[in-house]
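Quick log. Single chain, no ligands specified.
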Amino acid sequence: MKDLVENRRRISLGQKARLATEVVRQNGFLWTGCLGGYYLASAVADRAFAAMDALRKRHGLPGLNSASLNKLIWESWDWQAQGEEWTPSPEWKQSVIDRILKKHMPEGGTIVEIGPGGGRWTDELRRIAKKLIAIDISEECLRVCRDRFADCDNIEFVLTPGNELPGVEDGSVDALWSFDVFVHINRTEVEGYAEEFRRALRPGGIGVLHHGTTGGATGGWRSNMTAESMIEVLKNAGLEIVDQFTSWTDGEHEHQAGLYQDAITVFKRP
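-> predicted structure:
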């Protein structure tokens, strides 16, 4: 429906009038009024998003993505769905596990997960890792995961101030994983994390980051990172880019990296 709203600019005034008349004839005034409300609201939302993005860039505003705001948001989130509210389908999730997670996360190694949330990926990572270090900015997320994985003896839960890997020793990590987290982290914090990745990974260690690509264009409610700036930040930290993609093919299906033009970047420490 969003595509229809954006394409309305291509329709002439006369065509719109004829279309409106036919819509009323077939659906009545009440339904047509609701449709008009939707069109009006979408136009207001577009203008608001554009204004928010402009203000953010002009004044260097964090939007909703500063470390302190992220902490507040995820402390108060309802984690009953365990993060699965961001899973488009069971088939998509299984493909992420089979085609990405299992491909890059080594069995029997030390893995760091940044932002476990409700344990959406933790459940799979803890089966692969000899030791899993789950690091989150939210004490509530860590509590939820501690309760959920109380019977697991290979998970360590760590609270971070927002761009650090506290207690993780230099060169001790075989792999890093983070999904649906860096879409909410601005460049300043990403730069801090990238330095930590370089420090914590062993030579040859791999990292997989799911992140945004639009630079905050959708109103600034997501990260100001782009696909290009993620590559730049990681390279500046001395890390090597292995791959970056926005979709992948699994059999006859093509899956998207995320719900909002997201990407996945795979990198390693040389």
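The first strand starts at residue 110 and ends at 114.
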